[in-house]
Amino acid sequence: MRKLGRKITKKVMAVSLCMAMMAGCVAGCGDDKSGSSSSGSSGSQSDASQDASGSSSGEKKGTINLWAFTDEVPGMVDKFLETHPDFEYEVESTIIATTDGAYQPALDQALAAGGADAPDMYCAEAAFVLKYTQGDASSYAAPYADLGIDVDTAIDEAQIAQYSVDIGTNPNGDVVALGYQATGGCFIYRRSIAKDVFGTDDPAEISKIIGGGSGSWDQFFSAADELKAKGYGIISGDGDLWHAVENSSDKGWIVDGKLYIDPKREAFMDLSKTLKDNGYTNDTQDWQDAWFADMKGEGEKEIFGFFGPAWLINYTIAPNCGGERVGEGTYGDWAVCDPPIGFFWGGTWLLANNNSDKKEAVGEIIEWITLNYGEDGLQYMWANGTLNGEGGTKDAVASGTVMAISDGSLDFLGGQNMFDYFVPANDYANGKNLTQYDETINQYWRDAVRTYTSGEKSKEEAIEAFKQNIKDNLDVIVE
């Protein structure tokens, strides 16, 4: 999500690998990330901190190779090395943006090639993590137990959300990846609009009004009618609803090797058409300029809210709200409440290479980032905004234990403690409905739905076009 201000120095790589990565060397904004401006690496500890610790590169046992698609995890590793001056390895980070799909092919090639330059530790995000935990590239991922981690005990004590564990578990039942964020979703809404339309901005009351926790969209659309009567849209575009629908479905896109359209995902077609036909939104597309404009209240009509995890607040809505303090733009005019249906959106998982000869050392880093729930761990610092000193960005983290003892109150949310809602949100998320093809299939589906809601195609024609795209582009059985 956020960038941690690291200086990236370029690394000389094999020519063939450089050619594979060239398309991805320009920074880009994905669904929730922004990549570095080039593929690169850096030692993860400054000369000054090495001098302070009394160690030098000559005293290290070797180098751990870390691969990532933003500088977020490398920045966390910097902090690990700063707080663990006796750690016996240097860490060199290779960062390749996901722009134009550059990261996965480069990572795949590096894993397959092996050798001294192969990743010892690597990152995968929600859009493609199953490929590395349960799919085509899962054989490279080392079980956390092989890294010297008492996995079951650590997960239990840290209270890691089950959806995150499910996603990081390989077909043999071994945990091979865990995240550091909590990405369970809530409804993020404008307090001023809530007061104008419903007479209250209290999260508990707004939850009831939109059907929070009901498992149904009925009350949500009733609320949309009330908002419309006063000139407001309930959400910016159908993409805001899609993320809640997608990750609350019972099954994924592929079941027993065949394309499967979950009834909840198929129902999204009608939900989307209802939104469009009734003018409940500004008909924007997520990650486009009009979507961002709605976050600062500058769209065609003011928008009540967005569905998303804590990272959407910190790294998307806040930077696009039109201000940096209460009273500027929509800053401070937000709150979170329960969504009608539980879901998660996004996240990054950490994996270790099964072929690495530094497994235990890698395990120390991974455990500190994903499972340490003490005040000296990454999770606590990140939840309380102290990773880079006092006053940093607070985020919802993977450990429920950490969030229970942390202060998640934000001025941006009018002083609300966001952990009150994001902790239970993780319990409702489902981690068993992903496939390794989700990134591609979701795009085909969203395109098909738009052709239906715009009147270009009937529902049946749109579904057939979607199926044809799958037949033509993926190795999946379509009936």
Number of helices: 20
Largest sheet features = 5 strands, mixed
The level-1 CATH class of the largest domain: Alpha Beta
Number of domains: 2
What is the SS-derived class? alpha/beta
User: Whole-number radius of gyration?
Assistant: 22 Å
Number of strands: 11
Low-pLDDT ranges: 1-57
Mean pLDDT: 88
Query: Can you list the strand order of the major beta sheet?
Result: 2-1-3-11-4
CATH superfamily of the largest domain: Periplasmic binding protein-like II
What is the terminal-to-terminal distance? 38 Å
State the helicity in percent bands.
Answer: 25-40%
User: Remind me, CATH topology of the largest domain?
Assistant: D-Maltodextrin-Binding Protein, domain 2
Shape: globular
- CATH architectural arrangement of the largest domain: 3-Layer(aba) Sandwich
Explain how this protein is built.
The protein is α/β, with parallel strands linked by helices. It has two domains: 223 residues, Periplasmic binding protein-like II (D-Maltodextrin-Binding Protein, domain 2); 154 residues, no CATH class. The chain has a five-stranded mixed sheet.
Question: Which labels suit this protein?
Answer:
disordered N terminus; single chain; 479 residues; D-Maltodextrin-Binding Protein, domain 2; 5-stranded mixed sheet; 2 domains; 4-stranded mixed sheet; 10% strand
